[in-house]
Every structure is written in C-alpha cells, then in structure tokens.
Amino acid sequence: MSDVQYKFHPNKRATIITAPFSGGQPKGGVELGPEYILKAGFEKQIKNLGWTTTVEHPLEGTNFELKKSNEKDEYGIKNTVIVNECNKLLFDRVLTNANLGNLPVTIGGDHSIGTATVSAMLEHNPDTCVLWIDAHADINSPKITESGNLHGCPLSFVMGIDSESYPPIMQWIPQNLKPGKIAYIGLRDVDDAEKKILKQYNIPAFSMFHIDKYGIGKVIEMALDKVNPNREYPIHLSYDVDAIDPSFVPATGTRVEGGLSMREGLFVAEAVAETGLLGSLDIVETNPMLGETDAHVLDTVGAACAIGRCALGQTLL
Ligand SMILES: NC(=[NH2+])NCCC[C@H](N)C(=O)O
Ligand SMILES: [Mn+2]
Ligand SMILES: [Mn+2]
C-alpha cells in the first residue's frame, strides 16, 4: 500500500491502456512492450499499491503493424495513416477513462502515442501540465523532421507548431498544449531545428547537464515551478524509458549515452507521486526485441514496471 493522496484520483482507480504500436519509428519490437510489461506482473504490482485496476486494449483487432512502411510521404513523414488512426483510438480511450475518474496509464509502444495521451488529458482538464521525461525533445514537425519518424513529433502536433505542414487527416488533433504547460527532464539528444523551437517558444528544458549541475531533486522542483508553480494542476507524466541510461535500460530503440541513473529515473516518478498531482502516465519505448541478452530485456521491462509503481506511490512511506 502507499500513503500518497492523489488529489485528482482519491478513489485510486487506474486504467492500464495498452498501445502495442511501433509505427512512429522504423524498428520492430516496441509493439511488444505492453505484453512484456503485463507479463512481468505490472497490473498486480499496481493493485498491491491500493489501486483498483482495469486493462483495456484499444488497438485490438487493428492490423497497423502489417501496414508499416519506411517511405516518407509527400509531407516528409512516415506511416502517417496508421499513426493517425492509432492516436484516434487512444485519444478516445484516454479521454473516456479520464472523464470517468480513472487514471490513464498508457503503456507503449513508441512515443508517437503521446499525441493522443497529451491532447486527451488537456481536453479532459485544460489546466493539465506535462512533464516529458526523455533523452529526446520529440518536438519535430513534418516541416523540420530529418528522420520522418513520428515518434519524434508528438509535441509539435499538440502544440500546433508548423501546423501548415500537417497532413489534413491530422486536423482532428486538438492543438491544446500551451508552451508554458510543458517541461522536459533528461534531454541529451535534441535536433538543431528542435533547439530553435525550444528557444522560440521558451519551453523549460532540463538536460543531463542541469541534472548534474543542480541534482535531480532540484531540477524537478525547478520544472514544477515553471509549469505548476502553486502545485495545483494535474500532471501528465510522459515517460520515455530512454531517458534512463542505456546501461540500465538497454532494450529501447534510440539509446543515448549519458542518461539518468536508475535511481534518478525512479526519483522523478516518486517526486511526481509525492506532489499528489499525478493525473495520467505514459510509459513508452520499451522494445524487448532490442536486448542483446535476456538480462537486457528483463532490466528494461523491470525499469518500465518500476517507473509505473513509483509514479503510483511505491517507496514513499
Ligand atoms: N521518442 C523517441 N525515442 N524519439 C526519438 C527521436 C529522435 C529524433 N529527434 C527524430 O526525430 O527522429
Ligand atoms: Mn526518447
Ligand atoms: Mn520520446
């Protein structure tokens, strides 16, 4: 059990929403993340913390994975149709659960699903603020992306950045995230064009440099001071496991050296829990096919589960 009081979820009901989807990036295997995380006992672990849980599979019956291709379309991006359809299904499930008072825990899958989770949570409560824990900024737009991989773009879509470059089928996405409502922690691999956007929109970005300089505890306080100064708004925690150093979390698609230690990574989730303001959670980019050994896979899946447990109240007395 945990003693954290969740202001927006006093009844402690959580819905685990699986997003077995890899279309936001070229590598196969990240669609198996949810299955591995659930097989590791994630739901039971959350129940043990005092949550009532249900699991939903909104992508069941779709065949997005079979439609994946590595071609850029006329907008300079890949797999637009399946990423868009996947996000529509997730948007609906996340919003419905949030409106029912359930805390959505979306398990990826690649980070392109952040388009749905972030915009749904802002639709549910426009005061929501976002903490994006990641080695990457994921704020490319179709106009500026070099890779064309949509897991590098979710935040531009929900902020409406370079919106003239979006394909018409993505016009349903609410552009409801304001620059003052998001902060990054863990950045260390940001594209040049993304750096310009972070500057232009004045988005608080705490890189590994800041974490070494100030310590992770201070960095979280600074990030919350920017997006939630009176500690009153719900927090959407979007956690890309590649924020943590690849020595602890090797089985992920875009590894970048020099990341968070395992304890720093979990501390982020614990500190958000401690605020009592957690509104929703994503855990993304676990790719069980990219471990070189079974231990790599176990470590990575274990870390993903631990992030969820910490965010939902474990280890605080
Ligand atoms: N969710 C992630 N792991 N994103 C990695 C993005 C890498 C690079 N910035 C790109 O746009 O392709
Ligand atoms: Mn990343
Ligand atoms: Mn990411």
Automatic annotation (TrEMBL):
One of its GO terms (biological process) is regulation of ornithine metabolic process. It catalyses: L-arginine + H2O = urea + L-ornithine. Its EC number is 3.5.3.1. Pathway: Nitrogen metabolism; urea cycle; L-ornithine and urea from L-arginine: step 1/1. Binds 2 manganese ions per subunit. GO terms for cellular component: cytosol; nucleus; ornithine carbamoyltransferase inhibitor complex. Transmembrane segments: none annotated. One of its GO terms (molecular function) is manganese ion binding. Its cofactor is Mn(2+). This is Arginase. The lineage of its organism: Eukaryota, Fungi, Dikarya, Ascomycota, Saccharomycotina.
